[in-house]
Amino acid sequence: MKGIILAAGRGSRMGDLTSNLPKCRTVLHGKELIQWQLDAMERSAIKEISIVRGYLAETFEFDLTYFENERWLHTNMVTSLVSAKDWLETDTCITSYSDIVYSSDVVKKLINFPGNIVVTYDPNWSNLWLMRLENPLSDAETFRLNGDQVIEIGLRAASLHEIEGQYMGLVKYTPAGWAMVTEYLKKFTQEEIDKLDITKLLQGLIASGVIVNAVAISDQWFEVDTESDLKIYESEFDKSPVK
Fold first, then answer.
1. How many domains does the chain have?
2. In sequence order, what are the residues at sequence separation of 6 or more whose Cβ sits closer than 8 angstroms to the Cβ of residue 236?
3. 175-203 pLDDT, tens per residue?
4. Do the beta carbons of residue 129 and residue 193 sit within 8 Å?
5. C-alpha pair distances (Å), 84 with each of 92, 179, 186
6. Does residue 116 lie in a domain region?
7. Which of 25-29, 111-115, 228-232, 238-242 bottoms out in mean pLDDT, i.e. has the lowest?
8. Each residue of 80-95: b (16+ CB within 10 Å) or e?
């Protein structure tokens, strides 16, 4: 089991906070976002962790394996994911966005849940989104299930009824699951792949008949899109409830 953190982007919505460091190096409750992720993975017995870097790559000083997305400015998350294909082709990997904070128990749930492609989701997502946004539908996307299988993800939601949970940005791929991704991506040009984000990839896989499983979490977690998010989490939680 290996871990891959997708940290190539700048995070321009963070404003001046990302002028000199990537978004994942911003601090929440005294710890950089990426350190929260590294700690959660390490406490989950993931021994090998890599970072896909791009923006200000030279500022990463962790003693880890690195993959490079040198075209980070002109690409989306799927291109960063493909940059780590050497690991994904041979090992089961937990992949993570670099702007989320989660517990080691969440990672353990994902590791132990069966399936070739598995995501975590928060069924109580609205509590966090109402804290951050006046209208959750301005940001939240569809997430619909049939049992533990995802049947829709990442589309514009017209009502809260279309959102049975919030996809967090954590995905497990087995080598067999990654082979399905590789086969699916063959139908796209490189330019089209460069525009794909992870939810569009997952929705495309589902539409093509690939099974994507989902495991619900109950632990507190955070998504950091803006400086406002950081301020809200710091003020609403005197001490981070994420362990």
1. 1
2. 131
3. 999 999 999 999 999 999 999 999 999 99
4. no
5. 12, 13, 17
6. yes
7. 238-242
8. bbbbbeebbeeebbbb
**Would you call 94 helix, strand, or coil by DSSP?**
strand
Does 30 map to a domain?
yes
**Host domain of residue 200:** 2-236
Alpha helical stretches, state H, the chain: 33-42, 77-82, 85-88, 104-112, 125-132, 175-185, 190-194, 198-207, 227-236
Q: What is the CA radius of gyration of the chain?
A: 17
20: three-class secondary structure by DSSP: coil
Q: Which residues pair with 149 in a beta bridge?
A: 146, 213
Token pair belonging to 22 = 């990537």
pTM comes to 0.95
- Residue 242 domain-assigned (yes or no): no
Q: Are 185 and 204 in contact (CB under 8 A)?
A: no
Structure tokens that stand for 126 in this block: 């609205």
Q: Residues 133, 228: contact at Cβ < 8 Å?
A: no
Cα separation of 206 and 98, whole Å? 24
Instruction: Using the structure block, give the residue that is written with the tokens 């996809």.
Output: 167
CATH at 111:
3.90.550.10
The length of the chain is 243
Q: What is the pLDDT of residue 16?
A: 83
